[in-house]
Request: fold
Amino acid sequence: MEIPLLSILIWFPIVSGIIVLGAGRGPRQDPLVRRLALGFSVAVFLLSIPLYTGFDRSSAAMQFTEFHAWIPAFNINYALGVDGFSVPLILLTTLLTVIVVVAGWQVIQDKVGQYMAAFLIMEGIMIGVFSALDAMLFYVLWEAMLIPMFLIIGLWGGPNRIYATIKFFLYTLLGSLLMLVALLYLYSQSDGSFSILDYHSLPIGLGAQIFVFLAFLAAFAVKVPMFPVHTWLPDAHVEAPTGGSVILAAIMLKMGGYGFIRLSMPIAPDASHELAWLMIMLSLIAIVYIALVALVQSDMKKLIAYSSISHMGFVTLGFFMFNGQGLEGGMVQMISHGFISGALFLCVGVLYDRLHSREIASYQGIATPMPMFAAFMVLFAMANSGLPGTSGFVGEFLVILGSFKVNAWFAILAALTLIFGAAYTLWMVKRVVYGKVLNDGVAGLDDLSGREFLMLAILAGMVLLFGIWPNPMLELMHASSDHLLAHLEFSKCPDVCR
Reply:
């Protein structure tokens, strides 16, 4: 009997979260809760490694598949499977959950059990989103993911956390309702099937495809987030605790990009071509305009949040170039951005834990009291700027190369973000890391603890590893990328619908 690895990866962290929640009944249990959360999160990461080692890189078919009837009356099934797009995102999720637990080890002193449980439960739900092959299962998990993040921001966030939480919830919920309408339409057109793979071969006309594409766009554009539905993200990041910001930027934003390649593009290939101009335009606006917005920020978290929007513009731009370099570049950019943005938010968290300020003006010359921290922050800033040798360069280079094959102006505009990214990131580093120490608070800062050094060192290793040797990531997704591109080129729309 084959081991149901995906079910284990989904339900083990959820059950673990419930156990942690039950164990955390008071301050006396906090040390036990922390150790349990760390042990469970490390176990989930180790359990996810067979997805990588056992994955057949030559096949574009779904692997590690599971199928059980869930609600037979409506043909809703518990169907799971992964391909070359899913596996890297699941591995990213399991690794960063470990780091988030470590990051909150000493910082979170209130309701420790609930905090750790929320991240473990959310980990299982996010893995479920990346492996669901039934449309209703996908939708239920997509919506369920909002609940733990809602609680994380609402309970452990900053002074304006209620405003940020409600804004985050309303934006994502309203977009998702349109996705549900599209899924119900597809259900009606497919003789009562909720199978996502069945939808990939569903012959529907161009008008219907455009409707489906735009309905999905409402959900996925909010999650990415794309211009102009991006305004919830800076508020959510500023108010979220450090761990919430890491998961929000590194994983939850990637679900929007994943939605495009799992649902929008394969289900509505003709509409994807027809509306590519819209996606390219919105992506380029995000890349250029939002980068300029980042340049004028005085709050480090807001700057990194706007930077995330700009960098995620590269992802959607690459996807809608409809070539291998663009598609794989967009995927690499998603994984790379997960490491880099997560690391930058952790860096801000390290400083905030010491001086309780996110304002750039509050810091100057931290390289003097915190040389180890300064080295890490400069590395991640360089990676965020797309420095060759870091993972930030690989995805952006591939997307620019794929864009150049379609239109040189797309590539030129996209390449502007390398200039703007360097401008706002290095401007922040100059004002925070370098210069003379101007206040006693900065002069008295302690350098990284062993716990902080460990979490930043792991992310630095990932950024350098995939910057120097991206092949392990690229070979995972190559067969799936080729399959999706071939599917997009082979139009399902009959001539009469054109």
Remarks:
- Confidence is low (pLDDT under 50) at residues 492-498.
- The beta strands are 63-71, 76-82.
